[in-house]
Amino acid sequence: MFMKRGKYKSSILAFSIVSGLLLAGCNGDDEKPSASTDSNSNSDEPVTITFWDENASPERTPLWEEIIKQFEDANPNIDVEYVVIPNKSAKSKYDAAIAANDTPDVGSVQTTWLPEFSIREALMPLDEYFDGSELKDKINASAIEFNKKITQDGKLYGIPYAQNLDTIWIRTDWFEEAGVKEPETFDEFFTAIEKMTDKDNGRYGYTIRGGAGGSFQLQRLMFAYSGLDYFGEDGKVNINDPKHVEFVEKYLSYYEEFTPKSDITNGYKEMIAGFDTGVVAMVHHNVGSYGEHKKSLEEGTFKTIPLPKTEDGKYVAEGGNAVNIAVFNSTEHPDAAWKFAEFVNSAEAQSLWNESTGQIPTNTDVLDDEWVQNAQHIKVAFEVYENPETKLYEPPFYLPDYRSILDNLVDPGIQQVMSGQKSAKDFLDEWATAIEESKEKYDQTFNK
Amino acid sequence: MSYSQGFPETSVNNKDVVHKKKIKKEKLVPYLFILPSFLIILGFLFYPIGTVFYYSLQNYDVSAPYYNSFAGLDNFIKIFTADEMFIPSLINSLKWVVSEVGLQLVFGMILALLLNQTFKFRGLARAAAFIPWAISGVLASVMWSMMFNEHMGVINDMLMKLGIINEPMAFLASTSTAFGAVVIAELWRGIPFFAITLLASLQSIPNELYEAARVDGASRWKSFIYVTLPQLKNTIILTTLLRVVWEFNNVDLLFNLTGGGPAHSTTTLTMYIADLAVHGSNFGYGSALTVVSFGILLIFAILYLRLSRYEKE
C-alpha cells in the first residue's frame, strides 16, 4: 500500500518530468506582426524594405549582396534588408510568416508556391506595375502566362527571374571510352545505365534519388516517359496510369543492380557527390548544378543532355520550374518593393545571377550575352523550351498538401518499392488516391 | 511547509500594528521571490501545453487556412482508426526506447563500476568517458553517418579487414540494418549519462556497508547485488524514467541519420510527428498525436514510479 502523500508526489513528479521534456521540442510560431519603419509613399524619403532569399547558400548570398549593392547605389533612398533562409526551411518560414501576418516586403518565391500564397492573400497582384514597366516586352512571355494561369484569379503574383530545367548530367569521357551512345530515348537511357556499370571498378551507370526530394525526380521522369497530362480528360489523375506503372517497375528495379546501394537514402548532396567523385556515369538533376560539377570535374569530361524523349519523340518538362520575385501584401512601400523586383529582373542583374547559378535567364536582353551563347547547359535548356513540340505538364501546385504528399507519402513509398516491400502498382495507386482526395476537398471548398 | 523559515521574527516591543504589518510583509516576501519562477513556468510550460491541447481539437494547417475549423475529436478518431502510420511508429518507438534505455543502463553501470575503482590516471579516464555526452547531436550524427558510409566509412573498412564482411554495406540505407545502426550511434551518446549519475551515486555509498558485507563473507557479486544495487535503486529509477521520456522524444540522430527511412523503418512516433507538423505544417493533427504521446508517457511515468516504489525502502 502507498501513502496518499507519496501517491500524489509521484504523480506530480511524473507529470512535471513528462511535460517539461515533451515541450523541449515545441516551437512557438506566434510572432507578432511588425510594422515597417515609415509609411510614406513619397519616393524621395528614405525607406527600408526587407527581402527574403528562399534558397540561401554560400554561393548565392554574395550574388544577392552584389545585386542589392548595385540597387542601393542606383536608388540611394531605398535600403534593402537582406534576410537569408535555407532552402529546406523556406516554405515553413513563409507559412508561419503569412499566418502571423509578418511577411517581408519582397521575397524570392518558387512558382509552385504562387497559387497557395495568393489564395491566402499574402501577395500583391503585380499586373499594373508590370504592364507599365519596360519589363513587359522583355520577360519571357510564356513564363509570365504560366504564372497567371496557375492562380485562382488569373493575376500575376510573381516575376520569374530564373528558370530551370531537369536534365541528365553525363561523364562524356566515360561514354567515349566505352563507346556508348549518349541516350536520347528511354530505351537508350536504360541501355546506357547497364553498359556504363562496372561494379568491379566501383562504377555505376546511374544514381537514383531515393531520399529527400526523390519524389520530384521520379514524377518528372514518369511524365517524360509517358508524355501524359497530370489529369486525364475525365478529371482523374494519371499518376497510376499503366505507362507509369511500367516505367516505375523498370526504373526502380535498376537499384542495386546498376546503381549504388546507398541510393535508397540519397538526397541532393549525396547524389551530386556520387557524380562529382567519379562513382556514377549519369545523374538526373537540373542545369543549376553546373557550378557544382565545374568545381570537381575537369572541363570537357562532363556535359548535360535533355531528359530522354517520349516514344513519339517529344521532350516533356514540368511547368513552373522557375523562381520569382514577389511583393507581399503587407508591405507599406509597394513602390519601393516593385522597384527592387524590377531591378532584379533587369538584364544586368539577371545576367549576373543566372551566369553564376547556371540557370536560365528570362530577360530576352540577356540571351545575347556571350556567356549564354557559350554555355552548353543553357543551350540544352533552350533547345527543350524553344522546341514547339515540347510538352509542358502542370502538376496541381495549388493543392495545399501537394508538397506534403510528395514528402511524406511519395518519398518513403519510393524507398518501399526499392526495398521490395511494396509493388510499384500499389505505390502509384496510393499516390493517386492521395492527390485525388486532396483535389476533391479543394474543389469542394472553392466550388469548382 | 512554512515559508517564514529562515526569517527570524524580531522581538522589538513596538506598537502592535507595526508588528503585525511586519509579519505580514515577511510572509509576503517569499512569495515575491518565487513569483518570477512561477510566471516563467506559467508562460513557458503551461501556456504552450494548453495550446497543444487546444490545437489537437482543431483542423489547423498553416499552409491551408481555408480548411481550418473546429474538429472536436476527429483528429483522435483518425489516429486510432484510420492512421496507418500510428501503430507502426509507436512500435518503433517502443523498440527504440527499450533497446536504448536497457543497453545504456547496462553499459553505463559497467562503465561507472570501472571508473569507481582506484587506478592511475583515473581522472583522465573519467573525463574521456564523458566526452560523447558533451558532443552536440548534429555533430554526432555527421560523425556517425560518415562512419557508417558505404564507400568511405571506417566501420566497413574495419569489418572488411577483419574478414567479417566481403563487400561494403550501406548500413543506414538497408531496411534490415538501419534501425540497429542508429541504435548503436545513440547508445554511444547515451552511455555517459548513466555512467555519470551512477558514478556519483556509487561514491555516496558508505564503505562500511562493503566492509560489513565482507566480514559476513559476501563475494564481490553478492555485495554488488545486496549492497550496491539497493543503494542505487532510487538513482536507477529516476534516471531510467528520465531517459525513457528523453529517448521517446528523441529525434535529432534519427532525423539526421535516416530521416525516418528507409521505408519508414526508423520512423518513431516523435519522428512521425516532426514530419507531419514541422514539414507538413499540419499542426492540428500533429498536436493530437503529441497529446496521445503525452498521455502514453504520463501513464507510463505514474505506473513506473508507483510500481518501482520510488523513495521507499
From TrEMBL, chain B:
<dbReference type="InterPro" id="IPR035906">
    <property type="entry name" value="MetI-like_sf"/>
</dbReference>
<keyword id="KW-1003">Cell membrane</keyword>
<keyword id="KW-0813">Transport</keyword>
<keyword id="KW-0812">Transmembrane</keyword>
<feature type="domain" description="ABC transmembrane type-1">
    <location>
        <begin position="90"/>
        <end position="304"/>
    </location>
</feature>
<protein>
    <submittedName>
        <fullName>Sugar ABC transporter permease</fullName>
    </submittedName>
</protein>
<feature type="transmembrane region" description="Helical">
    <location>
        <begin position="96"/>
        <end position="115"/>
    </location>
</feature>
<feature type="transmembrane region" description="Helical">
    <location>
        <begin position="283"/>
        <end position="305"/>
    </location>
</feature>
<keyword id="KW-1133">Transmembrane helix</keyword>
<keyword id="KW-0472">Membrane</keyword>
<comment type="similarity">
    <text>Belongs to the binding-protein-dependent transport system permease family.</text>
</comment>
<feature type="transmembrane region" description="Helical">
    <location>
        <begin position="28"/>
        <end position="49"/>
    </location>
</feature>
<dbReference type="Pfam" id="PF00528">
    <property type="entry name" value="BPD_transp_1"/>
</dbReference>
<feature type="transmembrane region" description="Helical">
    <location>
        <begin position="224"/>
        <end position="246"/>
    </location>
</feature>
<feature type="transmembrane region" description="Helical">
    <location>
        <begin position="127"/>
        <end position="148"/>
    </location>
</feature>
<feature type="transmembrane region" description="Helical">
    <location>
        <begin position="168"/>
        <end position="188"/>
    </location>
</feature>
<dbReference type="InterPro" id="IPR000515">
    <property type="entry name" value="MetI-like"/>
</dbReference>
